[in-house]
Design brief:
The structure is a homodimer of 479-residue chains.
Chain A (H helix, E strand, L loop, with lengths): L2 H6 L10 H11 L3 E3 L6 E3 L1 H20 L3 E2 L5 E3 H4 L3 H7 L4 E6 L2 E9 L4 H11 L8 E10 L13 E11 L2 H21 L6 E4 L11 E8 L5 E11 L1 H6 L2 E3 L5 E3 L1 E8 L1 H10 L16 E5 L7 H14 L4 E3 L7 H10 L4 E5 L1 H5 L2 E6 L5 E5 L3 H26 L2 E2 L3 H8 L4 E5 L3 H11 L2 E6 L18 E6 L3
Parallel strand pairs in A: 3-7, 15-16, 15-17, 20-21
Antiparallel strand pairs in A: 1-2, 4-6, 5-6, 7-8, 8-14, 9-10, 9-22, 10-11, 11-14, 12-13, 17-18, 18-19, 21-23, 22-23
Chain lengths: 479, 479
């Protein structure tokens, strides 16, 4: 027996027993990632990378539809550039990797591997932007970044990750704010419709905002263990970088003015979110829109005459209508073994075809989200399969919405807060002070996730100090 | 006036006067790249990056159609891994960037930024490959790599570049060789049909092969200045890496055996090739299959009633049939100015529409490759435009083929060799010795580009030493 076969029958830790171990079991056993020889760096295996490719395609289409273009900026940033914006360097300098030697020689100036690219990009924008006609400048890049993390988990926090970072420059404050919120909405809609993750949107507090931003907005997802995952951020950088990098444009009125900027990003972390929102005791559950394989065909009694031929016919028909389909014609495993494996790998729909089905001119579809069996006539194969793919997508979203609702409470006192925070989001009032924010974290382990756009008036008083409440905040323990 | 307007009217150096300066003028003025604050690192601007995206899509489809899957491996490689394969470390150690500190701490073991990923990938394959059932393993990755170069030129040789690197493992020597040649053929067909570059294919000499390979195969393109560009390589790694990384599989016969491996890659260097094969005195000339914009619509007498409406109608109709089309409706520039700019940027077809054309129910198409004007009836707009796009693609290939033929000579003595080498490829006989290879380089500046699959019997004697000829070789000066 090959290693693969031996591996499969091993146990996945149950979610209730140990959610964290369940996560690790799933990512390894579903063959999404592996640990690499460099501590904190992961290898993304083909099945995991294919999810990322689908995410990229969906997002890239949205970026282009909103007028953005892709570019590519250097991996390495001179120390002096990184140090230009004060808050930015304070935030990032402690966690960068330093390149000190190149081609056997010590470098005159050390370089950092980009932890994010504001500084190198701003140095170019200063050169490119001259006139109001050059604005808005709407660029994005898909790349790798490195942040030296002490404690890492595949997808959620790794020393290297893949992401996209949008960087835009605008003539006015209003346009920059509009862009910041537009891209947040792109992320929200994408999370909702593609990942089937109903995220909360809102603004980060001063403490939690991006190093160098005026305002940071976020999409926050709730995991099945009650912890929140910051799944994407969009920053209004105001003129912070423009002033230190001297990015000025000649306006219509003949005046030289600083531009207003934004940046926004999502990363391979989203894959961690998909796993922890939708996964179950059998393993991974993938939303059809990002699943590398949407339908897997498992022939039953494969060596009976006509079965494999019919399976290939079905494969061709589904492929022709654009479904990502795979036919598992391995003769080394039984159908039951295959069922288990494809469930572990989260394939949204299993299609079974055997001699009796052929007799009845039908196939059997089994939904991964609820294990429902559906008999579909061969005459309606494409249409019904497409329908059920959409139903699974919708089913996962509904389930995730319900999960989030069940796990969201509000609190007027710290006892209720503590009780709620183990379940998930707690909505509570806050006076706006850093002191209370820190104290709540010390007492409960929870951080402010965001101030939502529509605040509810839960109370008049700050849940911590009892002073005048300024905001309703979503609190949670977070990844 | 904005900087852009001022920039445009500046002069492009003529190819004959100074090809190298022409190249630099074109890449900067056509807005493909810019120099970055880090020496040897370039910024790929949106217009240049869009060419890369089209290259990626075309290649990725071909890789997937031949059974390959994408994955992602870490950027950083521990020094000890890099040092495992002797030839490999000799070849690459002198040109790597070293990461010595992470997160304010000195690393216990220095890491190199990948110059290529054989070593880190092999360390994983040793873990993943257990049984003959795990073979063949056919993975590819799209990523950035860093090689510390002393002398750099955008696209052609930069300290960081983007590329894909395929890494495969096979059960037998024959399968590995088959894969090596299959991927070379994928590159050749892609260069020919997509880039309109008729490359020469063949094997590298021992001196010129990849550090760690048994055999290296190459696609070699000829530029309009008579220099060759190595445009892609495919390596048969034999068991060199398998043995030092201990990549063994249990075969059907119960024996543990080392795998046979290949690797193959092409990079953003291809964009340099496109520029130097097809460009002309007016600037860039892009093959339609990789052009970010295939058709640019320039309205004439734009403010006359109906012109802009008609232009938008044409835009919609061409977009609907999948043509990458742009409408230049800027009112800050004259049509003549726009003609020049889009010619500089190499857009394959310019579509002019003005009041008289509307009267005649026609548009004017101007081909970038030969400046031919074609009048097309609005009734046949889509069909004829698609035809002409194909004709431009074909026209560029024919032109490049003729250029290569004109610049390829053969030589039986060193005088003829020297004369031919200033024009382009020289086919000549070689005894197979490293001494002669080095001597020819010293005397003429030319290197062996490849031993083609079909050698011609030009002579019996080595062109250098007069000894028995072993091979016919393509020689050229090279980038």
């Amino acid at each position: 027996m090959s290693k693969k076969e031996q591996k499969f029958v091993t146990h996945i830790t149950s979610q209730e027993e140990d959610f964290s171990q369940w996560y690790t079991d799933v990512i390894i056993k579903a063959d999404l990632v592996d640990y690499s020889p460099v501590k904190g760096f992961m290898v993304i295996k083909p099945y995991g990378y294919a999810i990322w490719e689908n995410i990229q395609r969906e997002l890239d289409d949205r970026f282009k539809a909103t007028g953005h273009k892709n570019a590519y900026f250097p991996l390495l940033i001179p120390e002096s550039l990184l140090r230009k914006e004060e808050e930015h360097v304070e935030g990032f300098a402690p966690e960068v990797a330093w390149v000190t030697h190149g081609g056997n020689e010590k470098l005159a100036e050390p370089l950092v591997i980009r932890p994010t690219s504001e500084t190198i990009i701003c140095s170019m924008y200063a050169k490119w932007i001259q006139s109001y006609r050059d604005l808005p400048l709407l660029y994005n890049q898909w790349c790798n970044v490195v942040r030296w993390e002490k404690s890492t988990r595949p997808f959620l926090r790794t020393s290297e990750f893949l992401w996209q970072e949008g960087h835009t420059a605008h003539a006015t404050k209003e346009e920059a704010q509009e862009e910041t919120l537009k891209m947040l909405e792109v992320y929200r809609e994408f999370a909702y419709n593609v990942l089937a993750i109903p995220v909360i949107t809102g603004q980060k507090t001063e403490k939690e905002k991006f190093a160098g931003a005026l305002y940071t907005y976020t999409i926050e997802a709730l995991m099945q263990d009650g912890k929140a995952l910051q799944a994407g951020t969009s920053h209004n950088l105001a003129q912070h970088f423009a002033k230190v990098f001297d990015i000025q444009y000649l306006d219509r009125d003949g005046q030289l003015k600083y531009v207003w900027q934004t940046s926004w990003g999502v990363s391979t972390r989203l894959i961690g979110g998909i796993i922890m929102v939708h996964g179950d005791e059998r393993g991974l559950v993938l939303p059809p829109k990002v699943a590398p394989i949407q339908v897997v065909i498992v022939p039953v009694a494969m060596h009976k005459q006509g079965v494999l031929d019919k399976a290939y016919e079905i494969y061709d028909r589904l492929k022709k209508v654009g479904i990502r389909v795979e036919l598992d014609d391995r003769d080394t495993q039984s159908p039951g073994w295959k069922f288990n494996e494809w469930e572990l790998k989260g394939v949204p729909i299993r299609l079974e075809i055997g001699p009796r089905d052929i007799e009845n001119n039908q196939v059997v579809l089994v939904r991964r989200d609820n294990l429902d069996k559906v008999f579909v006539s061969m005459n309606e194969l494409e249409e019904k399969t497409l329908d059920i793919i959409n139903e699974v997508q919708r089913g996962l979203l509904d389930k995730a919405l319900k999960m989030r609702e069940d796990r969201t409470t509000f609190a007027r006192d710290i006892e209720a807060f503590k009780k709620g925070i183990d379940k998930g989001f707690v909505k509570a009032m806050w006076c706006g002070s850093r002191e209370c924010e820190d104290k709540i974290k010390d007492m409960t382990g929870a951080t402010t996730r965001c101030i939502p756009f529509k605040e509810e008036q839960i109370d008049d008083k700050c849940i911590c100090c009892g002073g005048n409440a300024k905001h309703m905040v979503y609190f949670a323990k977070a990844y």
